[in-house]
Amino acid sequence: MSIKEYRTASEVRGGLILVRDTPGVAFGDRVRISDGRGGTRDGQVIRASNEEVMILVFEGTDDLDLEAVWVRFLDEPVEIALSPEILGREFNGLGEPRDGRPPILSNIRRAVGGSAINPAARSYPREFIQTGISTIDGLNSLVRGQKLPIFSGSGLPHNRLAAQIVRQAKLKDEDSSFSIVFAAMGVSYADAKFFRDEFASSGVLRNVVMFVNLADDPPVERLTLPRTALTVAEYLAYDLDRHVLVVMTDMTYYAEALREVATAKGDVPARKGYPGYLYSDLAEIYERCGRIHERHGSITMMPVVSMPSDDITHPIPDLTGYITEGQIVLSRELHNQGIYPPVHISPSLSRLMKDGIGKDDTREDHPKVAAQLYALYARALETRNLASIIGADELSERDRRYLKFADDFDQRFVGQGESEDRSIEATLNLAWELMSAFPRDSLTRLSETELAKYYQGND
Amino acid sequence: MSERNNSERNNLGFIREINGPIVTIDLPGIRSGEQVKIGELGLVGEVISLNGREATVQTYESTDGVRPGEPAEGLGWPLSVELGPGLLGGIFDGIQRPLEKIALQSGDYIRRGLSLPGLDREREWEFEPNPELGPGKQIGPGTVLGTVQETETVLHKILVPPGLEGELTELAPNGDYAIEATIGHLRDKAGHSHRLKLFHRWPVRKPRPYLKRDDGISPLITGQRVIDSFFPQLKGGKGAVPGPFGAGKTVVQQQIARWSNAEIVIYVGCGERGNELVDVLETFPQLEDPYTGRKLMEKTLLVANTSNMPVVAREASIYVGLTMAEYYRDMGYDVVMLADSTSRWAEALREVSGRLGQMPVEEGYPAYLSSRLAAVYERAGRVETYDAGPGSVTLIGAVSPPGGDFSEPVTSHTKDIIETFWALSKELADARHYPSIDWVTSFSAHVHAAAEWWHKEVDRRWEARRTQALALLARDAELSRIVNLVGPEALSDAQRWQLEGASLIKEGVLQQSALDEVDTFCSPQKQFALLDLALSIYDKGMTLIELGVPVSHLQDLPQLAKVRRCKSIYNSDQVSSITDLGREIEDAFEAIRVQYAKQHSDD
């Protein structure tokens, strides 16, 4: 089919162009738009009939003149060129270089939309990744092929935490490092620079592919950016057999861009103005991570989601939590006390932890230690609440022990240095040290054998 | 049927408009609900509305690359599934395509436009004809023509498809047959002869017929204490598991799938995580069914439409699962169907209705949400089948309320329909109290009915003990509020013992770890023994406290820690050890009483 070119643009609104009388244009195809002044923009068909085609313009529709616009239908889906050369490079959401170097040339081109992994082809993630962070390794373990988001809020150190994980993540007893795909959507220049410097200083830059869309770049481009990044991740994992860690920040800006376009399209809003398909749309992104039978590589994903007004029930963190396999939640309260990383363990969770820890993976006492710590900390927080009402002096000796535990736990177990890389053994030993402040009989989640082996208390 | 339609009307049209999964076609004469093949790729869809010459089609696959003007073909039948031997142990997508076969054909990713039948055409099954049947016999819908040993545990009964009635003219002898082979002939009243095969098709949106509803009572034993002992479910009942993310819905559902005393388990992963289904796929073939000793996978089938698979097939997946559930029910089996999650199904409805521009009612959901939900749950039930005795479908739906808000439309409508409500609580989950089923907001309409069974099979005191435990937990909530305001010092010894008793029930009975090898399944006998143990200690302690024994004296007893741990020390065959522990503690209490009485008389 010959490439069709039309001057029949009839309407422009909020990142969308409508073009009339364009028979036979395929849904989802890539479009090139020339603005009549020598500039071009990229777009995608999001609604097609013979009478009218709706096009999403990635660079936005500001400054477009309906009379002057030319639209060319390229008769191909939105694709990206892939080669091993892609490592160490920086691109925008469409896969165009942002680092001033030439574009990637390759015969391998893949549509960024991806398709669904057959559930029957997946294999269950069960290899423990040591991040060196006690609250993650000990209580919310990450495994290869898992998607574990960081739920954060404005001003909290999620970027520093993500960077620390990138630096330290490794398989236990194995030295193979990860390839990193970094997708930044709507972040500030400073944040993007932080990651770039961080990758450079830790010497991983040669293993990183960056996709960057800054806060002042066109928002519509954010819709394709994570898909482009994941297409690269799939190439690295399944064609080049690498273990890939995808860090995406910030999914909230992605969802806001989606809402912007949905509103322009006139979609029926569901919650807080977000379209009803937000869940499916996020799932298309998150579910591209995982492990596949008989493939050596894997995709592990750590998206950063900043919770608007620290509200975990906001649609974006809420729907994310329903799709991902757990979440790491950062707390402003801990952050304000100067505790880093301020991981609030109570709402944090790793769903895939159970199969990645224990005798053969970390240590035999790990599952029950985690359960016991959670139970003690829950009780300790209750005691802390109580103490704030009636005063610590009024507490019984038993309760004061819990109060002390809460403080020790926050300071020593949660708190650690930004360059402190704790092994899982160190984390578990620290846990035993803290738990040994309690009488043996009150540690009912632990088995007798574990207590006999590790308990360090007096009775 | 399709051939007849072909001659009557033109079934070829063309595409007018593509809007995501919603495609408008120009094809006069097509029926509502009919299957349509879309475009050159041959994507399959279903007509959801008609308007003059035009029909609106929802497609089960992504429409990327489809162009206006491409052909659209009416297939002449509604969305149907194949029902016959070979379903169990399999994993199907939302429109019953076998995912393992798709993986062989299209690799790790699902290619579009593949049409694979649900059942294997090649495989032969040993058919054993029903000895009571022979030529000349009158047969009707649901008559058992014979049997096939589908898996080691499940005997598959070959049924006359609903709608067929007449005289059996021929029945094949024992032998190996592929599912398309003819195993018999039936002549209907009009004299037409019909071929009978090992399988038949049934439209998924139409409930399968049965003789009548059956009012028999039998509890669904799940081996989970908080469910069986506190909020029991009956076979043929309908239940919901609502909970915010991270509260443990999936684990509750998987535990029911693993340990319930149903003969068939159908697990529908509807818009959920891919890795969760893989978990089931990888663990079930290794897990042993506690009732038969065989592998769990032999009685299980999975329908998988993960969250990233097309949204329209997600809507269909619940009906596909239900139809297969009803089919096994019609063989006289007790079937449990788990739908995880019905919220994703409702969202699929919402997405389609939004694309059609229908007027939204609550939070963007269409007005027909509640009636559709009710119709889905109503397909559960215990029935008298035509020829295979009683059978049942128990439907348990997970609900994922946004933000954990139970007043949102899907949860609140579901609550009106179901009989058992296992509400999961974020607070309990945060404290790692699993299963996080909240005893305050959960309910079961089946307690009295289940009590009949418990009193007969386990212990006559079951209902009384259950009520006592719940009352103690309610008292605990009240007292905890006081403690939070003024501290524990304000409580009397008796009140503190009540807190201790409630904590024994919470830790010793309600908490049950799915990961604990000993405790993951708990027989009804062990369930009652644990409950009785906790309450006996509480009762005994209370009498001591009334005599004036200080509460700290009792709290320090080392046996109390053992009571909390008892559930994972003794398995379901060691119930007598639990009663022994009860006696041991009783003796310890008695010693305290004697000692105290002595001190008292010395004074």
Automatic annotation (TrEMBL), chain A:
Molecular function (Gene Ontology), one example: proton-transporting ATP synthase activity, rotational mechanism
Q: Extract the Pfam families matched here.
A: ATP-synt_ab, ATP-synt_VA_C
Domain ATPase F1/V1/A1 complex alpha/beta subunit nucleotide-binding intervals: 132-350
The record's annotation in Gene3D superfamilies points to: 3.40.50.12240
Ranges for domain ATP synthase A/B type C-terminal: 355-455
UniProt entry tagged with the keyword Transport: yes
- InterPro entries (alphabetical): ATP-synt_VA_C, ATPase_a/bsu_AS, ATPase_F1/V1/A1_a/bsu_nucl-bd, P-loop_NTPase, V-ATPase_su_B/beta
Query: Any one Gene Ontology biological process term?
Result: proton motive force-driven plasma membrane ATP synthesis
| Statement: the UniProt record of this protein carries the keyword Ion transport | yes
Q: Which UniProt keywords apply?
A: ATP synthesis, Hydrogen ion transport, Ion transport, Transport
As for family, the record states: Belongs to the ATPase alpha/beta chains family.
**Record-linked PANTHER family:** V-TYPE PROTON ATPASE SUBUNIT B
Q: What does this protein do?
A: Produces ATP from ADP in the presence of a proton gradient across the membrane. The V-type beta chain is a regulatory subunit.
User: What's the protein here called?
Assistant: V-type ATP synthase beta chain
Taxonomic lineage of the native organism: Bacteria, Pseudomonadati, Pseudomonadota, Gammaproteobacteria, Chromatiales
**Name of the coding gene:** atpB
TrEMBL record, chain B:
List each copy of the ATPase F1/V1/A1 complex alpha/beta subunit nucleotide-binding domain by range. 223-444
Which residues does the UniProt record annotate as the domain ATPase F1/V1/A1 complex alpha/beta subunit N-terminal?
16-76
Q: Provide the alphabetized UniProt keywords.
A: ATP synthesis, ATP-binding, Cell membrane, Hydrogen ion transport, Ion transport, Membrane, Nucleotide-binding, Translocase, Transport
UniProt cross-references to SUPFAM superfamilies, sorted A to Z: C-terminal domain of alpha and beta subunits of F1 ATP synthase (SSF47917), N-terminal domain of alpha and beta subunits of F1 ATP synthase (SSF50615), P-loop containing nucleoside triphosphate hydrolases (SSF52540)
**Is Ion transport tagged as a keyword?**
yes
Q: What molecular functions are annotated in GO for this chain?
A: ATP binding; proton-transporting ATP synthase activity, rotational mechanism; proton-transporting ATPase activity, rotational mechanism
- For the ligand (ATP), the binding residues are G243, P244, F245, G246, A247, G248, K249, T250
Identify the residues that the record assigns to the ATPsynthase alpha/beta subunit barrel-sandwich domain, covering every copy.
117-205
Q: Which reaction does it catalyse?
A: ATP + H2O + 4 H(+)(in) = ADP + phosphate + 5 H(+)(out)
Keyword Translocase belongs to the record: yes
Domain ATP synthase A/B type C-terminal as annotated: residue spans: 452-541
Pfam annotation, one family:
ATP-synt_ab
Source gene?
A: atpA
What EC numbers are recorded for this enzyme? 7.1.2.2
| Family, per entry | Belongs to the ATPase alpha/beta chains family. T3SS ATPase subfamily.
What biological process terms from GO does the record include? proton motive force-driven plasma membrane ATP synthesis
Q: Which protein, by its recorded name, is this?
A: V-type ATP synthase alpha chain
| Superkingdom per UniProt | Bacteria
**GO cellular component, as recorded:** proton-transporting ATP synthase complex
Q: Which InterPro entries match?
A: ATP-synt_VA_C, ATP-synth_a_Xtn, ATP_synth_asu-like_sf, ATPase_a/bsu_AS, ATPase_F1/V1/A1_a/bsu_N, ATPase_F1/V1/A1_a/bsu_N_sf, ATPase_F1/V1/A1_a/bsu_nucl-bd, ATPase_F1/V1_b/a_C
What does this protein's UniProt record list under function?
Answer: Produces ATP from ADP in the presence of a proton gradient across the membrane. The V-type alpha chain is a catalytic subunit.
